[in-house]
Specification:
The structure is a homodimer of 152-residue chains. Chain A is α+β, with helices and mostly antiparallel strands and 152 residues long. Helices cover 35% and strands 22% of the residues of chain A. In chain A, the strands form 2 sheets. In chain A, strands 1-3-2 form a 3-stranded antiparallel beta sheet. A 3-stranded mixed beta sheet of chain A has the order 5-4-6. At the A-B interface, helix 4, strand 2, strand 4, strand 5 and strand 6 of A face helix 4, strand 2, strand 4, strand 5 and strand 6 of B. Chain A binds a DNA duplex (30 and 30 nucleotides) through helix 4. Chains A, B: It holds the Pfam family FUR.
DNA sequence: GGGCTTTACTGGAATCGTTCCAGAAAGTGT
DNA sequence: ACACTTTCTGGAACGATTCCAGTAAAGCCC
């Protein structure tokens, strides 16, 4: 893992204290991209022995607002966290199991992501979510959830 | 309201029973586009006198899966429902107060909405959410929430 | 490397939106 | 009208997340 020493530096750079819990959270997210808060709790416990749920939530919030983590919350599923930040990437979410995968923006920078009429809103960010079925769920029929959006 | 008689027909067309609650829910959403479940409960109570929260949730689900309503759930806020369905429109969400406004797709049909690599997912729908501040919140400084995505 | 200040972590209770349950009530086709 | 569904009521339960007050650890200064 080449990230151990780097994580330490990253935390300091952003003025965050370096604690075992924070490093363990970052490590957990290196191994499980798109992990839920609960996944992270499990991973950190496996790593450090024990942590409170709140400590993990605190870390996730601290790291997210420091820009080291990105949080995404697919409708109807628990929030997921990932380490890829600052790049133009979007997500495919499985309707059935909630699995998430990254999707790189086809066209260069934010393509169609400038709203035509923004109704006076000061827009600073665009988020694209693709909905569908992951290979596993497509193969094996399981009840699906309902959400709506742009039909392709 | 020209929709009263039409709503009745729309429900029958989709094989749904026509009940006072359902009509009231549809009426409520004519008046408050992007209403939350709770807003709808309030509106229906003002209209019919009383309803249980569950009756409203049942209606919202029934109408949503019949395609008469569209459900959207901005991360960190309660779900919102709207009557515009089947068209390519997206949303701007206010980080501070959660207000939602419609945004029409600039470019014709689903523009950059075909994921480059879909990781084997059977994608059927793309959803675009713009994040920012509504005019009211931009004017008057209130603590904001944190979410992350594609920076414009 | 000892103290002091600041920030993180613990455990438990509380919140919010939503769903589940069983029974009563109302809509629909014949 | 009648029987058959489907919907509505009220209350309890749920999962994810947050709030709270107290304790423990990290960083900084000398």
């Amino acid at each position: 893992m080449t990230t151990a020493r780097t994580d330490d530096a990253m935390l300091r750079e952003r003025g965050l204290r370096v604690t075992g819990t924070r490093l363990a959270v970052l490590r957990a997210l290196d191994e499980h991209q798109h992990a839920t808060a609960d996944d992270v709790v499990q991973a950190v416990r496996a790593d450090l022995g024990s942590v409170s749920v709140q400590a993990v939530y605190d870390c996730l919030h601290a790291l997210t607002s420091a820009g080291l983590l990105r949080r995404m919350e697919p409708a109807g599923h628990a929030a997921r966290y990932e380490r890829r930040t600052g790049d133009n990437h979007h997500h495919v979410v499985c309707r059935s199991c909630g699995a998430v995968a990254d999707v790189d923006c086809t066209v260069g920078h934010a393509p169609c992501l400038t709203p035509s009429a923004s109704h006076g809103f000061a827009v600073d960010l665009a988020e694209v979510t693709f909905w569908g079925l992951c290979p596993a769920c497509a193969a094996d029929p399981v009840p699906a959830a309902r959400t709506s959006g742009t039909t392709l």
